[in-house]
Structures are given as C-alpha cells and as structure tokens.
Amino acid sequence: MTPPSLSSRARYVVLFTAIGGLLFDGVELGLMPVASLSVSQSLLGDAFTPTLGGDWFARFTAALMLGAAIGGIFLGSLGDRIGRTRALGVSVLFYSVFAGMGAHVRTQEQMLVMRFLVGLGVGGVWPNAVALAAECWPDKSRPIIAGLMGAALNGGILMLSQIARTWHITAESWRWIFHLAAAPAVLGVLALTVIPESPMWLASRGRRRQADHVSTGRTDQGPVTSADRKPGGGALAELLRPPLLRITLIGILLGSIPMVGAWSASKWMIPWADKVGGAAEPGYKAVTQGWWATGAVLGSFFGAQIAAGLGRRRAYAMISVGASALTSLMFLGTSPLETSFLPIVFAQGFVATLFFGWLPLYLPELFPTRVRAAGSGMAYNVGRFATAIGVLMAGALFAAMGGSYPRVGATCGLIYLLGLVVIGWAPDTTAKKLED
C-alpha cells in the first residue's frame, strides 16, 4: 500500500486545480466587502443609512463565515471519505452556483441566505485543496506549495479588486459581479471528472479497507458495507476523542485567531474607505482592496517560507505581534484619502496574512492521512463559527461606537495578541515529514 508517485505533469495539474479552487474562493471572500454597501443601497432604497449599511455588511459576513464553518467541517470530512478531488469539485460548484443566484435576489434577507450557501462551498474548498496539493508533492516542496495555496486565496481578492476598479460596482450596477462569480462552476465539473486523485489518500483508503476486512472476518475482497463495520464513528469522531482531541483543539484555536482578526477587524477598512472616499472617487474602495490584497498575496506566500526558516512556533508568535500593531496603526494612525493610508493598508495586508501561508503548511502536519482533510478543515473552519459571532459582535460594537470604523477596527484588532498564548501550547512540527 505504499503510495505511488504522480507524474510531474499530473502533479502540476493537481496544483493548478487546487490553486484555481482557492483563487475563486478568494473572489467569493472579497465580493461583499466591495459590493455590500452598493447592494444595501439598492435593496433598501430610501431606508438605507450608513450605519444600517455597516450593520448589513456584518450580517453578510457572518452568514458567509457560518456557512464556511459548516462547509469546511462536513465537506472536509467528505474529502476523507470520497477523495480530495471529488469533494473539491462539489465545494467549487456550491460557491459558484449560489454566488450566481445572488444576482437575482430582491431583498436583503434573500442575499443573506445566498451568502450562507456560498459559504458552504468556500469552507469546503480550503481543506480539500490544501490536503490534495500537500499529498501530491514531496516534503521538500511543501513550503512553496503551502505559500502558493495561501497566495491563491488572496490572489482572488486582488483579481476581484482590479475588476471592480475598472468596472465600478454601484447601487445601480452590481448584479453583474454575481453573474461573474458563477464562472468557476466549470472548474468544479473538471475536478469531479478528470483531475487525478491523491495517491496518499488512495493508499490510506486501501489500508483502511484491508483493516476492515480483517476486523470483520471477511475473506473476500469486495467492498465493506456499513453493516460490516465496527462502531466507532468516522473522521470527525476520531478528531474529537483522544489522542487527537488535544491536537484538534489547538489547531482550531490557531486557525480561529487570524480568521476572527481578518473579518472582525481588518475588513472594516473597505467600507470605511467607501464612506470617506467613495463620493470623490467611486473606485476608491476597490483601490483600497487592491493595495491590501497585493500585500496579502505576498504575505500569504511568504508566511510558509518564514515558518520554514524560523520554525513554526516562533513565526506564529512574531506574526501575532506584527498584525496587532499594524491593524492599530491602520485605523488610528491614518485615514482614507491621506497619503499614508494605502501604504499602511498594504503593510497590514502583508503582515496579517502571513498567517494564511503558515496555516496550510502547519495544519496538514498535525493530522494523519486518514483524517487530514477533516482535521485541517475543522481546525481552519471552526474558527469561522467564532468569526461569525465576532463579526456580529463587531457590528453591534460598530453601532454602539456611533458608526466609527477606526474605533471598531482598532478594538477588534487586539484579538491577534491571543496568538502569543495559544502558540505556546502547540507542538512544533518543523522537522516532521508528511506521512502517516
């Protein structure tokens, strides 16, 4: 049952498929920050106010995060059961189809439901794409592969910002961007039908089947049915009991902190830029997102390289301090349309997204192959439950602070400092090979 190696051509096909899934994942993540106020202005009409627009931005974000949390857990687990590529294809189809349906909503509540359904696919893509790419490339290549995975996600946000910079998203014209977001359905179909599967997953499935035949007393080589299996649950059950329970909880905390920080703190800069600069420059919110996303593409790529050079734990601690400091500087040390604003946005995007290059390198190292997609998905996406709650609380805080974007962003940015505590409990996997 030693896993065979894919050909060089097949490895690159897998890599580009995983990158494509994450690239369009990033498009979905970046869509509402640039479109939310325009959507709300259009659907609410005369009832729209800036404070109400900010509140709906928080709701849309929370709905996406809640869907992503659920999708990441269950579609990640699906990847351990039916294969990485098929689960990846299902996830891409989820976010593409429901994003396209967002172009036809008539109320804020309908859009809220669509964002939740998009979130299911957004959450499912990450664990399956990361597990697939990590298992198809040798250990020495994994820091580069992990960096590309992180960069792809933020590359989607950058790509969207450049589209929106050229073709403005306004209250009168916003539905087109949701039609465009449906295009990745083609990639989902390809992942379901023609993309090669992870040899490591195939070998692990073979070992499990062999063990099931032995434990159930079967002498034939036919498939083991649910009636033949001993009770004990699947991948999720294994992750939630010793010896993996402690590892799972640590992974969840490490994934939650940057996620909550990104969505309850950092993302407020875009509606802030729209409010302050939108009247004078309709494309200013897209320019702001573009500067942030450029920094984020670089940061999420180099996060894995920094982790490989400094060690996993030291790198995470340093990133935590830097992200908190730069988030405070972005909201309290400058403001939209000032000369210093966009360079600081770039710097904050670079440092705060180093986490998202670190995570695709570190999380697969925590879990054995048989539960790697489910474990990585749970660690990365359970944080989105916390993010959904955090974003709603940030929305309430935003209203309580009189609609002050700087105050709510700087306050929520302190969450990054919790990383200094959690990383002290985490195992150091710097020298670990990706194997069972």
Write the layout of secondary structure elements.
Elements: H1 8-44, H2 50-82, H3 84-101, H4 108-136, H5 142-166, H6 175-180, H7 185-193, H8 199-215, H9 235-239, H10 244-264, H11 269-277, H12 284-310, H13 312-332, H14 341-352, H15 355-366, H16 372-400, H17 405-412, H18 419-422
Descriptive overview:
This protein has one domain (8-209, 241-425): Growth Hormone, Chain: A, CATH 1.20.1250.20. The chain is 74% helix and 0% strand. It has helices at 8-44, 50-82, 84-101, 108-136, 142-166, 175-180, 185-193, 199-215, 235-239, 244-264, 269-277, 284-310, 312-332, 341-352, 355-366, 372-400, 405-412, 419-422. Helix 4 runs antiparallel to helix 5 and helix 12 packs across helix 15 (355-366).
